[in-house]
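DM from R.C. (forwarded with permission)

"hey, sorry to bug you on a friday — could you get me a structure for this? deadline for the figure draft is monday and I only need the backbone to look sensible"
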Amino acid sequence: MRHPPRSVLLAVAGAAALVGGVTVPVVTAQGATPACTVEYSVTSQWDTGFQGAVKITNNAAALSGWSLGFDFAGGQKLTQGWGAKWSQSAATVTASNESWNGSLGTGASVSAGFIASKSATNPVPTSFRLNGTTCNVGTDPTPTPTPTDPPDTGDKPPALHVVGNKLVDAGGKTRRLLGVNRSGGEFMCVQDRGIWDGPVDDAAIKAIADWKANTVRIPLNEECWLGLSNIRPEYAGANYINAVKDLVAKVKAHGMTPLVELHWTWGQYTGNSAGCSDVHASCQKPMPDMQYTPSFWTSVANTFKSDPAVVFDLFNEPYPDRATSTTTQAWQCWRDGGTCPGIGYEVAGMQDLVDAVRATGAKNVILAGGIAYSNDLSQWLTYKPTDPTGNLAAAWHVYNFNSCSNESCWNSQLAPVAAQVPLVAGEIGENTCAHSFIDQVMKWFDDRGLSYLGWTWNAWNCSSGPALISNYDGTPTSFGIGLRDHLRALNG
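My reply, with the result:
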């Protein structure tokens, strides 16, 4: 091997750095202190590979765990590393702390190294993210704009896509989905009671934003969206769709990401753990149906495909494992659909639904929850649907009474998934009217830069709901106060 006589360094202190004989500008803000700085260096290279190093300095609040992400731009492939747990998905490289170097105090630094293959060129990464925060960029606040009349309700949420295991905006900045569920659209219409449960006017949505939520998950009903004959016309078809579009617009107007989700579907199921004996979409079924669900997602995708700020959640809580006799059968049913043991209607698998969305040309981010009411992701990577756009993420739900409700399970089952794709806890909650359990969930997800949404922003009894609020002005229950205070601490 031939090695260069000196290392190639990307500095962060000056205005530019010399990299392989090419001057590369360094992005810093005049007079501002970056939240973190990363020095990336090529310490040795040869025809087909190189050795690199990163030095991370944390200038913000002390961290108990860290994860650095950056993207290779020249097809480089990571082969081994040290000083961190290294991984690569597509172009995105992630270095996460080892057990012995996770603490990173204010002003403290940590270094790690790696070896990677390369082709003729070896371009330097241009952006580095520490726990989702972009480094080497000043954090001075942007001057407040002159108020308009009427005042702006907030920044619009970003268009999202998947890079590696992160959800990012058009500029490559990571966006964690942190917020609440707004239940109602899944059940009110099929019960002949309206479309939404409680107010969804601007004041009601502003109350959610005032909790510093950045995402609202909106459960839907396929029969109501499609306007099937068993639904009252005033709550179905165009009336229902327009109501959903209006709510999505209000959520966006307050700077929050709308996450539209299919909750209740057609299909008669009376087997183990059946929620109802009704063929209509009046309860949670074990899997989506081929009769209507692909049509639902074709319509939803066509409605929102021009707006990549809207995220799609394919199906609330699959539970084919309760109907079938083996876990393998359950996962095969989950992905491939068709005739599934124990389920009397033809099932639409997750691959069918991804295909339906993508056939419209929609590139919106898609979430797919696992089995066992989205609480089991043990074979999600094995049965992961194929998505030609690469904009697929995993959804997971957890309550204190679920099987996978402890850190041991999360470490063994969730962490491998989160290392490969974005992971969104679409529902977190507990039936204790307290918040000690979701506090544990949020900490585990915070430590890994993952997303979570509390169930639910409805003024119900917290033990039967559970409900985050007692009033639609945002007054929290004793359960909801944990999520509210946490979101405000993170984003306030």
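R.C.: lifesaver. Residues 1-31, 139-153 have pLDDT under 50 and may be disordered.
me: no worries. The chain is about 20% helix and 25% strand.
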